[in-house]
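Urease accessory protein UreD
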Amino acid sequence: MNPNALSMAIPLPAGLQAGWHAALELGYAVVQGRTVPVHRRHQGPLRVQKHFIDAHGQCQHIVVHPPGGMAGGDTLTLDIDLAAGSQVLLTSPGAAKWYDSFGRQAGQQLQVRQLPGSLLEWLPQETILFAGSSVRLDNVFRLHGDARLLAGEVMCLGRPASGAAFNRGLWQQASEVWRDDTLLWCEHNHVPGDSPLLASPVGMGGHTVLATLLWAGPALPPDIHQACLELPCAGRAAVSQLPGIWLARFIGDSAEAAHHWLRGCRNLIYPFSHGRAASQPRIWAS
């Protein structure tokens, strides 16, 4: 990583002239005991605000997509590298909105690489899929050695408060977590707007918000696992300890309730995952 490469523009790839394409590369390393950004390169409307380093040396960055929404043909690409020992929290200033695609697919690709001893929190605000949106989301986290990951997402299908259900369109998502050459977690979604799974009790059960919190690291102690199960929840929630992965899931009808429950789990996990009490990024209170 070249510290002199900050804010360089990525050339627009040949053949990507349709839609609005944006890309962001971020690299982090430990310098004098603190994690700092050492690489930032962008193309199009995808940036980060000025970083904040907390009292424990963790670097907090807010990823910003100024247009505020994605239309058919638009794509976002994020490429994130954490050097050995670095600690980073990445979030966003508000909801990611995916508008009616009018038959053209939009998408986002996230690639994360973490070297041994690094710790990433990937905790964006909610994603809202409008009726008619055709969206493909690809997330790949590659952890090396004892790197750790705490990743969360809140997916909102449609806008029920406005009477706009997600009754047409397509939500596709592929998520993978690797540790060295071992695949720890793989999940693929293919959910059309008319899918029976949206109403089925083995699917969304008629609810509109699905949230996930994933911890890739040492298995959580049973008391923390149980405390997460006992958190108040304005919806349905469950947690599972799998080999190398701890997973929390929420289904309900409110993004605010989903965030509240996931952040409650995060608060309980934090003394184990980070060795200190959790603090909240200031942007979450705005």
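thats it. The helical segments are 222-229, 255-273. Confidence is low (pLDDT under 50) at residues 1-17. bye
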